[in-house]
Specification:
By secondary structure, the protein is mainly alpha-helical. The protein contains 2 helices and no strands. Helix 1 crosses helix 2 (about 35-45). The protein starts with 7 loop residues before the first helix and ends in a 14-residue tail after the last helix.
Protein backbone atom coordinates (compact mmCIF):
# COMPACT_ATOMS: atom_id res chain seq x y z
CA UNK A 1 0.00 0.00 0.00
CA UNK A 2 2.52 2.53 -1.07
CA UNK A 3 1.48 6.13 -0.70
CA UNK A 4 -1.37 5.33 1.70
CA UNK A 5 -1.31 5.92 5.42
CA UNK A 6 -1.90 3.08 7.82
CA UNK A 7 -4.21 3.45 10.79
CA UNK A 8 -2.62 3.10 14.21
CA UNK A 9 -4.22 -0.33 14.50
CA UNK A 10 -2.76 -1.46 11.17
CA UNK A 11 0.67 -0.15 12.16
CA UNK A 12 0.50 -1.96 15.51
CA UNK A 13 -0.54 -5.21 13.85
CA UNK A 14 2.15 -4.99 11.16
CA UNK A 15 4.95 -4.13 13.58
CA UNK A 16 3.82 -6.83 16.02
CA UNK A 17 3.66 -9.46 13.31
CA UNK A 18 7.07 -8.47 11.95
CA UNK A 19 8.63 -8.45 15.43
CA UNK A 20 7.34 -11.99 15.95
CA UNK A 21 8.83 -13.05 12.62
CA UNK A 22 12.22 -11.59 13.57
CA UNK A 23 12.03 -13.21 17.01
CA UNK A 24 11.35 -16.59 15.39
CA UNK A 25 14.43 -16.27 13.18
CA UNK A 26 13.33 -14.46 10.02
CA UNK A 27 16.09 -12.50 8.30
CA UNK A 28 16.39 -8.83 9.23
CA UNK A 29 15.84 -6.61 6.18
CA UNK A 30 17.97 -3.65 7.31
CA UNK A 31 21.43 -3.06 8.71
CA UNK A 32 21.02 -2.24 12.38
CA UNK A 33 22.85 -2.61 15.65
CA UNK A 34 19.60 -3.33 17.53
CA UNK A 35 18.99 -6.83 18.82
CA UNK A 36 15.45 -6.30 20.14
CA UNK A 37 12.91 -7.66 17.60
CA UNK A 38 10.42 -4.89 18.35
CA UNK A 39 13.01 -2.15 17.76
CA UNK A 40 14.08 -3.86 14.53
CA UNK A 41 10.46 -4.07 13.35
CA UNK A 42 9.90 -0.40 14.19
CA UNK A 43 12.98 0.60 12.20
CA UNK A 44 11.86 -1.53 9.25
CA UNK A 45 8.41 0.09 9.39
CA UNK A 46 9.96 3.55 9.46
CA UNK A 47 12.03 2.71 6.38
CA UNK A 48 9.09 1.06 4.61
CA UNK A 49 10.74 -2.30 3.96
CA UNK A 50 8.34 -4.62 5.78
CA UNK A 51 6.94 -7.13 3.27
CA UNK A 52 3.42 -7.11 4.75
CA UNK A 53 0.38 -5.61 3.05
CA UNK A 54 -3.05 -4.55 4.26
CA UNK A 55 -6.12 -5.46 2.26
CA UNK A 56 -9.08 -3.13 2.58
CA UNK A 57 -12.53 -3.30 1.03
CA UNK A 58 -13.53 -0.82 -1.65
CA UNK A 59 -14.81 1.60 1.01
CA UNK A 60 -11.32 1.90 2.50
CA UNK A 61 -12.11 -0.04 5.68
Amino acid sequence: MKGEKYTRYERARIVGARALQVFMGAPVLIDTSNTDPLEIALEEMKLGVIPITVKRDRLGR
